[in-house]
Give the backbone structure.
Amino acid sequence: MTAIRPDEALAQAYAGISAVVDALDDTGLQRTTRCHGWLVADLLLHVLGDAQRALVALASPADGPADVDDVSYWRDFPGGGDEATRHAWWVRRSAAAFDRPTGIVRLWRETAPAAVRAAASANPQGYVTTQGHVLRVPDFLATLTTEAVVHHLDLIVDLPDAPPPGPLATRVAVATMDGLLSDDTVRPVAWSDHDFLLKATGRVPLTDRDRLELGESAGWFPLLG
């Protein structure tokens, strides 16, 4: 398999989200998503926060060594709980502060490309700190890509004509989920990459057939929230 440049995967992930939201007016940005209680505009603001976090982290190199990689980083984020609920409510209130939902799109269009440019110019041998952890730059970019791809799928649940995430970015997200699974787990053959991502993150429940094929590994799901 050809190696994926982390900055190129992030660029594709963010461009994919831009392709979705650029096509929407204020009404379209108020469609529902897979994230409980969030409209498209709310979820976009959440992902915008990741792009802003990327700009801060990439402009503030840290000393190594890393304490987590692109897979183990996610073990601190199982999903749910009071903190997630408070964050969800904060995002809704923050999004409502914009005069129009398209204002969030304008800010995203300014910020996401800047984060991608910062990623492309970052030292791939360097380290950054974010969310209380130290990561290698490529691993940090992979975490951003994984979150963007999963949220891209969240964004388009009520937008059947919207484009899906790009293949390079999807490969990064799938590799993350593979890393979170036990080594002896075999993914059900009927699952597409998008099926895997949605089921691995609890967006879509496992079926009885899924549980039969996964065996004891079904207990690992969801792998993250």
The first strand starts at residue 61 and ends at 62. The beta strands are 61-62, 127-130, 133-136. Residues 6-170 form a domain with the Four Helix Bundle (Hemerythrin (Met), subunit A) fold (CATH 1.20.120.450). Helices lie at 6-21, 40-58, 81-96, 102-121, 137-155, 167-180, 193-200, 208-214.
